[in-house]
Amino acid sequence: MTDQNQDGAGRHPRRRGQGELEAQVLAALRQAPGPVNAAWVQERLVGDLAYTTVITILTRLHAKGTVARERTGRSFAWTPTADDAGLAALRMRKVLDGEADREAVLASFVTALPPGDEQLLRGLLAQTTHEAED
């Protein structure tokens, strides 16, 4: 017997990229009219995700500080505290924190940037330095 997806073609479903599901959950939360429960989020996600999967992703996002939760009865109501850029920055910091030689990682990162991104980074660093001095 072969694995088949819903359209019957013997292909495996596409695997999500790292962080893709977290980004989808955050996007759903940003569309919410206020704090919402996991079932509300589940209804708005593409695919047939289990409720427990949605809870797991929300809990991971909460541990990362990108969503807040408040107790409502026996469950939680969830709200976003970070956008996609904030989530990407958290992932970048996690990778950097996992490396022994931060200077080498940062140097390699900066030297691999295209000129436009390098100038953008320099401008952001200068702005941050200026704000710290005020």
UniProtKB/TrEMBL annotation:
Claim: Transcription regulation is one of the keywords in the record: yes
Pfam families attached to this UniProt entry: Penicillinase_R
Keywords recorded for this protein, A-Z: DNA-binding, Transcription, Transcription regulation
Domain of life: Bacteria
GO biological process, one term: negative regulation of DNA-templated transcription
InterPro entries, A to Z: BlaI_family, WH-like_DNA-bd_sf, WH_DNA-bd_sf
GO molecular function: DNA binding
Family: Belongs to the BlaI transcriptional regulatory family.
Protein's name in the database: BlaI/MecI/CopY family transcriptional regulator
